[in-house]
Each structure stands twice: as structure tokens, then as C-alpha cells.
User: What shape does this take?
Amino acid sequence: MRKQIVAGNWKMNKNVQESTELASEIVEKVKGLDLGNTRVIVTPTFVNISEVVKVTKGSAVEVAAQNMHQAKSGAFTGEISGEMLTSLGLKTVILGHSERREYFGETDAILAQKVDAALANGLEIVFCFGEVLAERKADKHFDVVESQIKNALFHLDAAAWKNIVLAYEPVWAIGTGETASPEQAQEMHAFIRKIVADKYNAEVANNVSILYGGSVNPGNAKEIFSKEDVDGGLIGGAALNSDNFLALIKSF
Ligand code: 13P
Assistant: This one.
């Protein structure tokens, strides 16, 4: 059975004290929950990962990174390698976030290299993609999503997909307060599962968790998460407060 996942993407928020405080609060509050089939992931910025790993150790709260470089090591000032992440005990990395694509020039080709590098390090990938508003208005959202997935992931063999989590994040819904309706999310997630099934097989498609991201909050999560093909959320703003984040986890 595929996992349900609630992942907080903290983006460039919270200093080290604030990060450890938030992580500690989440650890405490999650203790009282029966998580069942649900994974809880927090994603601090790089410099705060080690401290957050310390305060989450032994808890149900997993720590992931927001990005990594595709090279093994070398002269890439300011960058972080996959091996550096695994050396901290991390098992998961987010790749392809729309903010990385838009502000840092990450193309599908670069992302395909990052995907390979992450898998070579034994990392699980939360792979993000999604259309901008103009593409949705032009009815191109299915094509855009298909090509983003195809270009960065379809060179993988079926076995590699056990380390892939997909995250549909329509860019027009990120940080805007505007959410895709549960029906729009379900429609896209079902489409994604179908293209994965067509490329690989039904087993791969049924086992891959597909998260929704974009202005998920405690008020709308339950309805979105209740959709058949929505296996959880990648959460920005609402993940920066432990009560809100807990409410999202409880939405399952
Ligand atoms: P918001 O939840 O703030 O819209 O951000 C979503 C997101 O980008 C998660 O990666």
C-alpha cells in the first residue's frame, strides 16, 4: 500500500534556534498520534539540518533536504552534494521545486542529472512539478506536467521508482492562498498515475505516492487529502507553525 505523506517545506525560513524549536514542538505533538500509514517529514534549510536531525532523532519525524547538487564533489562553491546529505543520516531530498526552476534556472535536463545523483546516493526523491497559471488557462497543464515528469524521470527503470515520490504543485497555487480545488487536484493526480502506468505498469503507478502542494492549510486539507489519488501534501506556509502542521497530519 502506498504511503501517505505530510511534508513541510520550510524553504528559506527559520534560523537555527527557530528551526530546532519548531522541530521539537512537532516531535512532541506527533508523539500523541497514531500515525498509521502516514509519514511526517520536515525540511529545514541546509545550515539547520544537523540540529534538526538531533532533535528529531528517535522520533517519527523524518528530516529531508530542499535540494542538492548533481556532482559528487568539487569546485561548486555554495553547493551541497548528495553524499553530504546521507552523511547526516538523511534519506530524502526534494528536487525540482518550482522556486528552484524559476529563480535558479533548474531545467528538466539538470533535474534528470540531480535525480540520478540522488538515487546513486540511495536517497528517496520528492520530485516537484506543476504548471504556471498561463499554461492552465491555455489548457496546457496536462502536457506541461507530462513533459516535466517524462524529461526528468522516465529514463529510470521501474525498480528505481520505489525511491520516487511525486509532488504536483501548480505554481499559481504556491504561496498565493489560491488552492487547486480537490477536483482539480484529483483530476491531475489521476492523470499522473495513468502516465506512470502507461510508461511502466500498474504496480509502479499504484505504489507511487503523489502529493499535492499549493496553499494547503488546516481548513482545506481534509477535502484535498480525501481524494483517491492524493496521498498527502507538500506544505509551505502552514508547515511553519506546529499547531497548523499537526492539524494537517490529523487531516488523514
Ligand atoms: P505554500 O503551502 O506556502 O503554498 O507552499 C507550497 C510549496 O511550495 C511547498 O513546496
